[in-house]
Design a protein that fits this description.
Layout (H helix, E strand, L loop, with lengths): L18 H16 L1 H4 L3 H16 L5 H31 L1
Helix pairs in contact: 3-4
């Protein structure tokens, strides 16, 4: 006996994908094809960042502390610059 709502569109025992998951999967593949050309220049940088992350996690390099420190700086500097820009904009608008 088949469960209620099963219309025989899939083989018995096959995993059913929910409509939401199917939509998200389709949208993800669509966006990756459409906007893939925007990411093309950054793929080499992304690969290098993944490589440095793997080296840092393994601790196999003498430069591991430097890699961790630079990663921290690269993370904190943009946040600092945004906050500084907002503070200066607020000072200019209110001052």
């Amino acid at each position: 006996m088949r469960p209620r709502g099963f219309h025989g569109t899939q083989r018995d025992g096959a995993a059913r994908m929910s409509p939401v998951r199917a939509s998200v999967s389709h949208a993800g593949s669509l966006y990756s094809r459409v906007f893939g050309w925007l990411r093309h220049p950054f793929r080499g940088t992304e690969a290098e960042a993944h490589h440095l992350y793997e080296i840092e996690q393994a601790g196999t390099s003498g430069a591991t502390p430097l890699i961790a420190f630079l990663g921290l700086i690269i993370f904190i500097v943009p946040i600092f610059l945004v906050m500084l820009g907002l503070a200066l904009l607020g000072a200019k608008l209110l001052g």
